[in-house]
User: Fold this.
Amino acid sequence: MIELDLEGRIALVTGASRSIGRATAVALGEAGARVALGARSRPDLERVAEEVRATGGEALPIRCDVSDPESVDAFVAEATDRLGPPDIAVANAGVFQQWGSTHDLALDEWERIVATDLTGTMLTCRAAAAAMVDGGSIVAVSSLAGLVALPSAAAYTAAKSGVTGLVRALAAEWAPAGIRVNAVAPGFVMRDDDPLADSPEVLAGIEARTPLGRRGRPREVALAVVFLASPAASFVTGTTLAVDGGYSAI
Assistant:
C-alpha cells in the first residue's frame, strides 16, 4: 500500500500536545512523515515529540497559538526553515465552550471559541497553503457539531459548522494549485483529560445514542486523518469525513 506511505513528507500539526492532535502526530510519524508539532504548551509538545521519535519518526516541537496570526505564521515559517516546505497540514487546534443556554452566552466566550476553532483553522490552512511548493493536503479537524446541532453549545456548533464550509471553499479555490482540503468530524472521543470520566450517566447516554455503542479513540480519528493526508485520498477534496460511530447517521 504505497499510497499510504508518507516517507519523506513534511507535516504540520496544530493542537499536537494532546488527544486527537497527539495521536495524529504519532500516526503521521509512523507513516514516515517528518512532523512539526504546534501547541501552546512547550513541555507537553516535548513529550509528544518523544513519542513520535520512539516510533522512528522525526518531530520538531514549536510553540503556536492559532488564535494569534503572527504565532501561526511563525510556526509555519520555522517548520519550513528547519524541515522544508510542508506537504501536509493538520489544523487540529480547538477549544470547547461552556455548556449552557445561548441566552446566557457571554460575547467574549463566543469570540474565544470562534477565534480558535474557526479563525485559527483558517489561519493555519492559509499559512500552510502559502508555504506548499508542489501541492499538498490539508486536513481540518471539525466535529460532529459541524454536521448536527449540539444543543447548549451554539458557539462551538457555529464554529465547527464554519470549518465544514471553509474546507469546501478552500478545496474549490486551491485545487488548481494541487492542494486538497478536507476535514474529519469526530464524534464523542475519549480525551487525555477526559471531562466525562466522572459522569457515568452522560457516558451511558452517549453510548446509547451512538450506533456503535461506544466513544471513539483518538487513534481512530488520527488514522482517518492519515488517510486523507496521503496519496490514497488523491481524488478526495472538499469533503468532511464523519468519524463518529454512526452518531450523525441517525
Notes: The beta strands are 10-14, 34-39, 58-63, 88-91, 136-141, 179-186, 240-243. The helical segments are 19-30, 42-54, 69-83, 107-131, 154-174, 200-209, 218-229. The CA atoms of residues 92 and 141 lie 5 Å apart. The first strand starts at residue 10 and ends at 14.
